[in-house]
Amino acid sequence: MLKKISIEIKWAVIFSVLGLLWMLLEKLSGLHGKYIDYHLYLTNLFYIPAIYVLVQALKAKKRLFYNGQMTYVQGLMSGILLSVLIALFSPLTQWITSYIITPEYFPNVIRRSVELGYFNTIAEAEANFNYANYAKQGAIGMLFMGILTTAIAMIFIKTKNKKDGNTGI
């Protein structure tokens, strides 16, 4: 059983490490402190390497497990499993981010969001910007985006067999 999902496990770990490296890059570039006003926009650039890693995982599954012949459904199932694994790792990576890489992020974003008027009080901002909220949102977001990305990517990755009319579904 573990051999069947070893590719997804490997790529979920790669994805999680990539996420941690991205958080370190954000911190080092000042997006969790001095330039926090830009964080909301620039953090979304993470989707570029995230999608790339997910696509590489699906291609690896096709090449290594299915010997280059993978249907849309097989790829979709692999991508769903990968997304579930990433979502399960997400609270741990969020904990490492929040308490080791950048413990100043929440206090900084709380203070700044009140200064800018996004929240009326520190308590309101604290209810939004905290580890528990980010861990929950991160896991749900990773699951949703992973499945959506897989559904789209598999249109292009599935094996297209023109000879017998098989659509790869």
Task: Summarize this entry quickly.
The chain is mainly alpha-helical.
What features would you describe in this structure?
- It is elongated, with a radius of gyration of 19 Å.
- The model has no long low-confidence stretch (mean pLDDT 95).
- It has one domain (6-157).
- The longest helix is centred in the middle third of the chain and has 30 residues, at 72-101.
- The two termini are 24 Å apart.
- It is an all-alpha fold.
- The chain has seven helices and no strands.
- Helix 3 (47-65) packs across helix 7.
- It has helices at 6-28, 36-42, 47-65, 72-101, 105-115, 122-128, 131-157.
Q: How would you summarize the topology of this molecule?
A:
Blueprint: H1 6-28, H2 36-42, H3 47-65, H4 72-101, H5 105-115, H6 122-128, H7 131-157
Helix pairs in contact: 1-3, 1-4, 3-4, 3-7, 4-7, 5-6
What keyword list fits this structure?
elongated, 169 residues, mainly alpha, 0% strand
Helical content stands at over 70%
DSSP strand (E) fraction?
under 5%
Our count of helices gives 7
Task: Please count the beta strands (DSSP E, at least 2 residues each).
Answer: 0
Radius of gyration: 19 Å
Shape: elongated
